[in-house]
Amino acid sequence: MNDKKGYYAILHLDETAGEKEIKDAFRREVKLYHPDKNPDPNAAAIYLKINEAYQVLTDPDARKAYDNLPDAAADFIPCCTCGRHAHQPRFIFFDTGESIMNGGVYCRPCASRQQFKAAMKIWKTLLLSPIDNWRLLKKARSLQEMPADKNFEMLLQNAAAFNSERRYGLAKFLAEQARHFAPDQPERSKVNMFLNILPEASYRREPDYWKTRWPDFLRVYLPVFIGLFFSLSAVSVSYLPRLSTENGYELSDYEQPNVEPLPFNLSDKTQLYHTKKDEVSAYQAPSAKSGVLSVFPAQTTVRLTGYVPKSPWVQAMTHQGLLVFIRLSDLEKGVGAGTQPYTSKIMRPEN
Hints:
- This protein has 11 helices and 10 strands.
- The strands form 3 sheets. Strands 3, 4, 7, 8, 9 and 10 form a 6-stranded antiparallel sheet that branches. The protein has a two-stranded antiparallel ribbon with strand order 1-2. The protein has a two-stranded antiparallel sheet with strand order 5-6.
- It folds into 3 domains: 52 residues, Helix Hairpins, CATH 1.10.287; 147 residues, no CATH class; 74 residues, Roll (SH3 type barrels).
- The chain starts with 6 loop residues before the first helix and ends in an 18-residue tail after the last strand.
- The longest helix is centred in the middle third of the chain and has 25 residues.
- It is α+β, with helices and mostly antiparallel strands.
- Strand 1 and strand 2 form a beta hairpin.
- The chain is elongated, with a radius of gyration of 41 Å.
């Protein structure tokens, strides 16, 4: 007998009792346990339980819900892919336009992977039936194919399984989810009955993982995003050179500057120069349009390592070993004032 709250037991009935038997048993037990006639300190509590049992067993919908409360020994219905006992499982069909729809109980991560696979199947046949397949993509994005009856039964069974493990908070959480799928009043009554028999337990509520979010949109419409990316890339490649030219810049392939090298000898001080101005820009190429690598203060010492023929530019090396291009007019021969670093890569340290 599935007598979870002892309603049949307290009236001394079996589960096949008819309406007349229930009423007769109620009248008999009420007289025995009425607080005004029974001095037993537990009589009042039993009297209330008798009334509660009578209210449920004489209401056809409530009695049906009570008789069909989930079995405490019920097994979990796990995720059909990973086997987890998920906290928010769902029974979902994935419609790809084929004659047979794939369906099963999924946790959210596995459902997301199956959502992507289903969407890719639909994209492969999109041109065969564009309107129908576009409709299928929208259904896949929002995970619409969740049959209420299957989800109700599965969630309530898993709630009972959590209850059998004494994980009452999770049992309550899944039962509340089942109530959202209850199609009619008897099913809602069944959930309410189940919740009433659960002991008090706290549980940290989780967000609704099944709300449609931007990752669902991305998974289903990924080919669209890929197409947009390549289209924008193609437009950029053709448009940027024209845009740069209109703004006074000329794009061309990088050409190695023609530098005539000078002998490099740490003992040779004739190739040591220093900056004359307070701020001297050092460039990555012999052109003011190239990037500025550094700005040197006055009296910064550099070593010339080469010069660019028929050009005001020279190649120089800094104390740190960085090669730069500077206008020769910004330099003056000789070591700059101040102490030179001991670790210089362009001159020997003074003894």
